[in-house]
Structures are given as structure tokens and as C-alpha cells.
Amino acid sequence: MNTASAIKATAADPATLDAEELMSRDQIEALQLTRLKETVRYAYDRVPLYTKKFDDAGVHPDDLKELSDLAKFPYTTKEDLRQSYPFGMFAVPMDEVSRIHASSGTTGRPTVVGYTKGDLDRWGTLVARSLRASGVKSNYKVHNAYGYGLFTGGLGAHFGAEKLGCTVIPMSGGQTERQIQLIQDFQPDTILATPTYLLTIADAMKRAGIDPRSTSLKNAVLGAEPWTEEMRHELEQMMDIDACDIYGLSEVMGPGVAGECVETKDGAHIWEDHFRPEIIDPFDDTKVLDDGEHGELVFTSLTKEALPIIRYRTHDLTRLLPGTARPGMRRMGRITGRNDDMIILRGVNLFPSQIEEIALRIPALSPHFQLEITRPDRMDELAVKIERRAESSADECVKAAAELKSQIKIHIGSSCAIHVVEPGSLARSSGKLRRIYDLRKQENKPA
Hints:
Blueprint: H1 4-7, H2 25-46, H3 48-57, H4 78-83, E1 99-102, E2 112-115, H5 117-133, E3 141-144, H6 152-164, E4 167-169, H7 176-186, E5 190-193, H8 195-207, E6 219-222, H9 229-239, E7 242-249, E8 254-260, E9 268-270, E10 275-281, E11 284-288, E12 295-301, E13 312-318, E14 320-321, E15 331-332, E16 337-338, E17 343-345, E18 348-350, H10 352-359, E19 365-374, E20 381-388, H11 394-411, E21 417-421, E22 436-438, H12 440-443
Parallel strand pairs: 3-4, 3-5, 5-6, 6-7, 19-22, 20-21
Antiparallel strand pairs: 1-2, 7-8, 8-9, 10-11, 10-12, 12-13, 13-16, 14-15, 17-18, 19-20
């Protein structure tokens, strides 16, 4: 059996770190300014969309003289990539593009991203850096349960783990029973997955009579969806592992934009030698907020060749904090949600992560839940469907439902209905989990 506390690193060995990880804050910002000037000029000269955006905004690459001048330049949005579909934002000819990834396009045209050989090399380096920071060692076997294909998660994590020197098991998502079989047979040290899918694997192990704490797994590097400290605690206790966050998004690069350090577990350090982050007011995008203030995360790439990205609005809500394990690099606070995932219920702003945080403090309730929004009589109503834990009694569930309802009202300010359902009755996902079901449109359809 593993003992997670026994494998935690006390501090990173400087000899194992990239030179940039050892830079001071002043050195990082000097490097950022040099690379930012080059990137803004490069994008303006090579990408027609940026030429037009900058000209329309009345700014020019020569106007960027210090880091704060970045605020003068216009944002890039997902809609810009969709309007440029498929290759209109590429800054290099197609014979220099080594790989193409794309989003699923479920809400419109997919967003398409491209990579040169140099881009792929840098991406692999940053994923390797992120994995190493999270406690993965070069001689580890890594079970990769991120989805492969056009999604950047699977291949991005795969090549980063290989670059670190690991043996990679390219399982991809789904086939939970086979995931469990290979974890038992191949004895991996690390698993890469979304946090909710790792929870699904652990639950399936218990149903099969396998103690999740008995596996060879030492750590998990989890990303692709927001998760809370309560979820970390749940997974670490259930599986006797260290669980760390990895952050990224396809439009900026993919996984590996930021990674959490196992010795501190206090938020993902952004690899600022390659990305310049900003926090803006999500309701007034003319305001760039100070470090420590909550708002929307914006990224500018500093070294990308095929698809430079200037001030990309991620819709992720977080804050920037000083570096700890990597003092020169700022950290991201936990992502509290996304602008486009926020539920406004009778004037109250609510995120699924808030429900998760509260529910996991109530012993009778599991982390598996769904939010349903309806409007039966001109008034929005929220129902929380949440699974009970298998060992919970009927009386405990009644009390747990009342406590959850009360805590949501106290801490979030919204009334809701609570439905405690049987274990295993809610949908599971092998990738990003859908938490919110907005049924208002269906109800308002004409008969």
C-alpha cells in the first residue's frame, strides 16, 4: 500500500529544474517584455485578424514599450477563432504546421489550433515541467486517461510525459473496467485524468471489491475542469495518492500552461517565461485588476509560432498570487468557475464548484451531483440532485439534504430543492463532466 505522505517532496532539487524556473521575478518580467514585443509584432505582421484588430483599435506594436502597455491592445475571443475557421489565424504556411487540434464545436464552429515543430517541442517541455513539479519522476509509468484525438489533453499529456522520460500507457478516456484492469496489471505510478473521472474509476474499483488505496498509484495530475480542495482531499484519502492540478486550454497551448507543485499544493504556477497572464474585471473589460483580485483570466502567448494569441479571454475566474515553490512565477488561485458556467438564479451568482465545496463537507453525501434549472411559473428554480454515499442510512440522508439546503442558502444566498438519489444513478463522464442542465428553454417551447 502507498503512503501518500511518504512520497511527497519536501522541496524541488534545483538541479532538476529548468533554468527559467530559477529566475527571479525581475528576470521573468524582463524576459516577458522582450518576448512580448516580438510576439505582438509577429502577430501584427503575419495574422490578418490581428492587423485589422490593432488598426481598428488605433494601436501599433511600436506602442508596446513596457508590460503595462499590453492593456492597450484588443482582446482575442473564441469567436475570433471561429470566424477565422479553419486556418485563418495561422501565422505560418501550412507546410510549417506539424499538427492540428480542434475543439468539439458543440456550440458552433470548432476552434482550430496549429503547432509548428518548435511549438510541439516547447509544449512537451512545459507539460514535462508541470508533471515533474507535481511529483512525477522520469522512471515512472504514467497511465494517461485523458482523451486522445483532436482534444489537446491526451496527446499533450502523452508527449510531455515521454519528454520527462516516463513510460506512457496511452489508455485514453472511457472503458472504466479496462482502466481498472490495466492499473492492476501494469502497475502505473501516476494517473492523468479529469478529477471527476478519477473519482468514477475509484468508485468503480470499490464496487468491484478493490480497495482504491491498494493500487500502485502514487500520484494523480488532474485538469480540464475546475475542482475544489474538498475534491482533492476526497481523492487523496480514497486512493492514498498526492493529487495536483495542471491547467491549460487549447487556444493558448493545451495542458501545461500552468502546473501545481507537490511540495506546496497551493495553486498552479503559471509558466510565465512562455505566457503573460492578466486578470480583468469580467463586467468591465477596460479594467486590468491587481494581483490578488478576483476576475477573468486573460493570456498572451510569448513563444508560439503557428498560432500566436494576444490577450485571449479564457472565461475562467480566478486571481493571480505571488509564487511560492517557484518564486519568480505567479500562481493561479483555484478557478471558482467560468463566466459562461455561472448560474444567475433570481439575482444570485452561483457556480457548480460552490455546491461541490459545501456537499463534500457533509459525510452522507457523495461528490456526484447535477444542477437542474427550471422555470415552471415565470420564476427560475434550482434543483440539486446528489448521490448519497453507499454507507449512508435513510435518516442520515434526510438530515444531509436539509443541511445542504441550509448551507447553500447561508453561503450562496439561493433557495433550492435537494434530491438525494441512489449511488451510481447519475451520469458519469470519461472526460469533462456536465454539471448543469438548463431545462428552461424546453419548458418554454410552444405546445
